[in-house]
Write a structure and sequence with these properties.
There is one protein chain. The protein is an alpha+beta fold. Strands 4-5-1-6-7 form a five-stranded antiparallel sheet, covered by helices on one side. A two-stranded antiparallel ribbon has the order 2-3. Helix 3 crosses helix 10. The radius of gyration is 20 Å and the shape is globular. It starts with a helix and ends in a 16-residue tail after the last strand.
Length: 295
Amino acid sequence: HNWTRNSTLDKADLPRVKSIFQSRWEGGKIIQADLSQAELRVVFMDALLVDPEDTRVKDAYWEAFRTGKKFDAHTFVATILFQKPSEEIEKWMRAVGKTNNFAMVFQKSLPMFHEELKPHIPNIPEDQAKEYMNLYFKRMGAVKTWQKRRNREVVRYGQMATFFGRVRRSNLVNSGDKSKVNAAKRALVNSRIQGTVADLNNLILGMIQEELIENEMESLVVGAVHDSTIIDTHPDEVEQIPYLVRHVMQKIHEELDWITIPMIMDIGIGDNLEDQVDFDFPDGIAAGPHPDLER
């Protein structure tokens, strides 16, 4: 049933609902492997494909993402918007940075962006929202260049493909209606980013399950939530699963040569899907590419 898709569940109830999802085994754990800020990483990979010589890409997230270590892009943007060092960024400021990140990348209009900021800054004037947009693109000019070029491709060809080659088409680009054309451009360019992440997540999910079967393990992949793979983990295998996930991510990077910015998985372990504790590998190597892999 698709009750979750159509549910009017209040966000306040979400933790209680997530806590319902527990392991089938006594003493078992729920492990969640989440692609970290995947859409933003794909955007910057695509920006380099659009213009490999655009050094503004490398001036933005590039170097931080390239390290293969954990990097909070939303806090980074908040430091730009509020002109404060990262250690002074409060929770609500990071939320504004996150809202700004996705609104700009996915080409949302000023009125829409303004409305999305109000839960974090209730009385924010539209002029302030516009200033946030300007600050973002002043620092992230490569994103605007990428959008313009991909938008032109949509108008010319009426389609856009993910990095895996899955194509989405729209006849609205030839409708003559400006609002419909703009909506089609946003939808198709966004589908390249979000579709690539969805394709990648499905591939990772399948490869993790294959590894579990090949190693004759009891643990099971039980589904996906957005960019996360959920693993019902047998109590005897809790210590092994994070390393299995890391092994899969290293294989992914070896096989997909278009991954020029490391795709990292954050791993959480808990008694249920809500109460998760971050897992950090003792050797400091994240669940991403092998340290010796060069691009």
